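Exercise 7. Predict the joint structure of the components listed below.
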Amino acid sequence: MNILGIESSCDETAVAVVKDGREILSSYIASQIDTHALYGGVVPEIAARAHCEAITNLASKAIADVGLENIDAIAVTYAPGLIGALLVGVSFAKSLALATGKPLIPVHHLRGHVASDFLTHKDLKPPFTALIASGGHSHIVYVKDYTDYSIMGTTKDDAAGECFDKAARVLGLGYPGGVKIEALAKNGNKDAIRFPRVNFPDEPYCFSFSGIKTAIINYVHNKEQLGEEYSKEDVAASFTEAVVDVLAGKAVEAAKHHTPKKLAVAGGVSANGYLRERLITLCEKNNVELYLPDKALCGDNAAMIAAQGYYEYLAGNVADEYLNAMPTADICKG
Ligand code: KG4
Ligand code: ZN
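Solution:
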């Protein structure tokens, strides 16, 4: 079964076709990074307009690659994300479904991220534990089945990716932050500064990143106010070390809670080399089977939406003509 996926929840417009949830037949992504970089972050209104501009061209290329007659259904990210941005993809998908008579499948963006691991690892099947770390979310979930999720922990405040973006901004690196912090960290000392790691004894798989965000802002501002020299490389490396300690530590502990001990990782932050290395080490030590997504599939893309769309369709999750976009939605409800 070939599914056309559409993604427009943030700053990437993407259209792809995936066969049986596992094989990418066609995939196009139009990034808006250069546009938003001018403003130091994503401007929702500009994002929505840029999606509107890009989507038809991307869809026509993906459809041309496969042939409209070979597409069996249309999957679209309906939540969570920037509402104006989501509405572009949802409206486009609804129109395409109406014009072609093909089924319309609503996909939760974060379930889509997890499906990037189905594209990378053909042998990965639920049940497994998943760490999802993106620009807007940090979740540890238990994926009992493709469409049966339960939450083990979430962030109580900021997401890990958001924290990378803020750290980059305070260091004057610009947007998007994650990649720039990672590059800078390569020449820094990870033990130079001790940034906070927050734990909740009663909620061991929950995160809090606001403390580390404030700590890095205060560190940099203090140094600047005192006119003292400091190493941005050390800040980037020490900050990364703190975030990686928390993300990897909690995720591996969560995976050990279930049988079989399998951990899948997804979301933009999972592209981070330090996080990947730490997860490999910790999983080996704890006999946890680790599934990392292809680096090219960590960020937002439509192949992951089409992949998850396949499993949503098999579970009977098909939308009617009243499908709407939602800025937030419970990953467990789909
Ligand atoms: O999943 P994603 O592409 O979009 C959302 O759904 O939010 O995640 C984007 C986030 C951004 O905050 C970005 O800074 C972060 O992922 N990110 C990284 C890296 N690449 C992207 N964070 C750390 N290290 C990276 N290499
Ligand atoms: Zn995302």
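Discussion. Strands lie at 2-7, 12-19, 23-31, 73-79, 104-108, 128-133, 138-145, 148-154, 262-266, 289-291.
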